[in-house]
Request: fold
Amino acid sequence: DAFKPDHVIACNAHPMIGEGLQRAQRAGATTSFAVRGYGYYSRKRFEHVDYAFTCSRFLTDFYHDKIGLISTPLEPPIEWAPVVAPEESRAFVTFVHPSPHKGLTLFARLADMLGSRRPDIPVLIVQSGQSAGYLNAIPGIDFTKYPQIMVSPGVAKPAQFYELTKLLLVPSVWPEPFGRVAAEAMINGIPALVSERGALPDVIGGDAKSGGAGRVLPIPDWLHEKEARVPEEHEVQPWFDAVCELWDDPALYAKLAQRGRELAQQWYSEDVSRRKHLDYFTSLTGRADVFAT
Reply:
């Protein structure tokens, strides 16, 4: 009542948010809602929303197909200072957040293949919300025989593991709404090997053929976050081949690294992000229907 905002931006499904948006509209403010995940499938959640925006074209298309939501894709802002890392010590193929939905079992098979066939390629597992102990519970795979596979605790800043990372693995088996680690890798000129699910191909600027700033790789159709079965070697072979190709070909690696930096400047730089957000929010006036008729 005292500040009298022109526009109110909200996220989250807490009842307080809906009440706040309703009061904002009553006070004459325009409202917008950030959709950056799944589960907002009831149109009632958008009863007091004039405009909706998502974190990716993939999520915008998903919600349009799911409930007819009209939204604008707007990549989330990334602060570069905690992300940008020096290059001198980059020596690992890195996997962050060892959990089922992030592709734990696919990574386990790949790590076992690299451990036995390419002991010259060190692998780093960065714990982030999940313990790497999950890997030791996978039957039939013994990671203790591979000294080149190492585990890092969670870190305060992403730059702390990017400074050790030469290639980033993002084998997510669920449809990532965005894929922040892939974008952060591009900022650092680190090629990312990503799954073909969700927004990941768009984040690195490629598809299954071009790959953009990295490689878009297949995962078995049957593999999802609730499936505990480990893929067979032939199902993971494209990932193994991509790691080896980029590890062994400095010219190709440099090409993808440079492409990543270029795309990161175009899409994820702080100046670009600031301009996109400012342009978007200042363009929103009055009431609008967030659902297709």
Q: What stands out?
A: The longest strand covers residues 30-35. The mean pLDDT is 93. The two ends are 34 Å apart (CA to CA). Residues 26 and 257 are 50 Å apart (CA to CA).
